[in-house]
Every structure is written in structure tokens, then in C-alpha cells.
């Protein structure tokens, strides 16, 4: 049970702050750059959660110990999948609750890039801690 809590410990605070701000304030309309720190933190928190999950699976012999390259690829892959899902979520919110928030291709690609950067940085630190 403690491991499940640890896995969700990292992303929940990011989402808990982002979602109310997105739904009930105009902060992202007034300051369009404000979503960048959230995507960075979101990517980092998902990477940290994936590292905890992977460590748990290896520790409990559900998975063999992975070479460092596979460890990094797995975590960055998880971050990429979650980031893509998050962009679909943002798009869905925009369709359900129309606003003046910019939903352009460049914004979406920038969000994905920043999320992956946050995930890559967290993965770097997780892989250093692992070795």
C-alpha cells in the first residue's frame, strides 16, 4: 500500500493545483506562459512515479533488473504516453468548457516538449540515484 501512495504522491499535487486553476480561473488566458511550469512539473512528477513503480517491480521480482538504457527509455516512454493523454484531456476540457485559451498546434507541441523535458530531467536524477 505504501508503494501505491508513493507512486501517486508526485503527480497528484500538480494535478490538484492545475485542474482548479484551469477550470475556475482565467490565469492561463491572462498569462499563457503559466502552463509551462505545470507541464514541466507534470513531466517530472510522472517520471518520478514511473521510477518508483519500476523500482517496486524490480524489487519484488516481477521484473528483472533493467540496464540503464531500458530504465531511461521506459520512464521517458511513460512520460510521453501520459503527456499525449494530457493534451487530449486539455483539448476535451476546451471542447466542454470553451474559453479564450489558445489551443494551437505550436502550443500543444510546446507543451509536449516541456513535459518530456521535465520527465527527462527527473529520469536523469532517478537513474543517478538508482546506480
Walkthrough of the structure:
By secondary structure, the protein is an all-alpha fold. It has one domain (2-57, 65-130). It is 81% helix and 0% strand. The protein has helices at 2-9, 11-24, 27-30, 35-59, 68-96, 105-130. The mean pLDDT is 88.
List the helices and strands and how they pair.
Layout: H1 2-9, H2 11-24, H3 27-30, H4 35-59, H5 68-96, H6 105-130
Helix pairs in contact: 1-4, 2-4, 4-5, 4-6, 5-6
Rounded to the nearest angstrom, the distance between the terminal CA atoms is 25 Å
The number of domains is 1
Q: How many separate helices?
A: 6
Order of helices and strands: HHHHHH
Find the structural class using helix and strand composition. mainly alpha
What fraction, in percent, of the residue positions are helical? over 70%
The count of DSSP E runs of length 2 or more, i.e. the number of strands, is 0
Q: Round the mean pLDDT to the nearest integer and report it.
A: 88
Principal-axes shape call: elongated
Q: Proportion of β residues?
A: under 5%
Question: Largest sheet, described in full?
Answer: none
pLDDT < 50 runs, ≥5 residues: none
Task: Give the radius of gyration.
Answer: 16 Å
Highlighted features:
131 residues, mainly alpha, 6 helices, 81% helix, elongated
Summed up:
This protein is an all-alpha fold and 131 residues long. Helices cover 81% and strands 0% of the residues.
Amino acid at each position: 500500500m505504501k508503494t501505491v501512495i508513493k507512486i501517486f504522491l508526485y503527480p497528484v499535487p500538480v494535478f490538484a493545483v492545475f485542474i482548479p486553476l484551469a477550470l475556475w480561473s482565467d490565469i492561463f488566458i491572462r498569462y499563457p506562459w503559466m502552463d509551462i511550469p505545470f507541464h514541466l512539473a507534470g513531466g517530472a512528477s510522472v517520471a518520478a512515479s514511473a521510477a518508483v513503480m519500476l523500482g517496486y517491480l524490480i524489487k519484488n521480482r516481477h521484473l528483472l533488473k533493467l540496464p540503464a538504457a531500458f530504465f531511461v527509455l521506459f520512464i521517458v516512454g511513460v512520460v510521453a504516453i501520459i503527456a499525449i493523454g494530457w493534451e487530449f484531456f486539455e483539448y476535451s476540457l476546451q471542447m466542454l468548457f470553451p474559453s479564450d485559451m489558445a489551443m494551437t498546434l505550436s502550443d500543444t507541441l510546446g507543451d509536449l516538449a516541456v513535459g518530456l523535458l521535465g520527465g527527462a530531467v527527473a529520469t536523469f536524477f532517478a537513474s543517478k540515484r538508482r546506480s
